[in-house]
Recover the amino acids of this structure.
């Protein structure tokens, strides 16, 4: 199977997607299209089988910022003390029929290439993700590190692990 990564299109049917995580599925089925086409607050990229166009997985990204005062990251100490631009991976899910076949890794690499494009176009100091507990090891395989967040937790949401990858590390990975 040849995997193609492309942006979500209005014609794409998302109803049959099932990752095994109800929150990941609900977001993709109900909100990914609204966020991309109506509100324009994030874009979703699909991993599809290039011959059948079956959706294998997706990643939704948005622009974001981080305040270095809220983090204790030596890699960012050289930057000025105001919010810095980052690419945030809002969601990443793989249909359970295609898990453990490299789909998530291909989606993640595409998001890292997007960060490089952002760095050149408008500025970007890294990629951040709010990883669910069962995804922390996946991101660690790609050199993401746990960010020591000082504040900003939402008591009404499940606690997730904030992880980051600096542009310096992204350039090393993608060489």
């Amino acid at each position: 199977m040849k995997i193609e990564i492309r942006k979500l299109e209005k014609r794409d049917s998302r109803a049959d997607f099932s990752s095994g995580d109800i929150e990941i599925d609900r977001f993709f089925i109900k909100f990914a299209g609204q966020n991309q086409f109506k509100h324009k607050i994030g874009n979703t990229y699909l991993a599809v089988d290039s011959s059948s166009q079956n959706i294998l997985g997706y990643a939704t990204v948005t622009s974001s910022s981080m305040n270095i005062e809220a983090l204790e990251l030596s890699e960012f100490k050289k930057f000025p003390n105001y919010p810095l631009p980052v690419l945030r991976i809002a969601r990443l899910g793989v249909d359970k029929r295609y898990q453990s076949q490299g789909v998530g890794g291909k989606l993640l690499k595409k998001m890292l290439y997007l960060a490089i494009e952002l760095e050149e176009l408008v500025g970007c100091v890294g990629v951040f993700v709010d990883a669910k507990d069962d995804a922390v090891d996946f991101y660690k395989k790609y050199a993401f590190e746990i960010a020591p967040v000082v504040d900003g937790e939402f008591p009404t949401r499940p606690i997730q692990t904030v992880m980051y990858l600096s542009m310096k590390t992204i350039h090393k990975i993608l060489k």
Observations:
- The mean pLDDT is 91.
